Amino acid sequence: MKSQHLWEFIYDMLNNPAYNPQVLKWENQADGVFRFINSESVANLWGTLKSNENMTYEKLSRAMRYVAGDVCVTSDLRSYVVLLSIVT
What we know:
This protein has 88 residues and is α+β, with helices and mostly antiparallel strands. The protein has helices spanning 6-14, 39-49, 57-66, 84-87, and strands spanning 24-28, 33-36, 71-73, 80-83. It has a single domain, classed as Winged helix-like DNA-binding domain superfamily/Winged helix DNA-binding domain (Arc Repressor Mutant, subunit A, Orthogonal Bundle).
């Protein structure tokens, strides 16, 4: 089975009513802009998926910046993120 990419994980969460809008939500779906409502929950869920019990939001955001071709994190910590690869 193919390992899930971070942007796929976030996109799946955004389209799942169990997580949207409680954990994260679309701000402008057409532009791919969303907001973390509970960033630590997102990090914990990503850590569980990747078998990394030490995952934090700081580590998650670093991973998001690392794949800058797919995802761009704005300077407003824990709020807006633009998911570029989904809308292109």
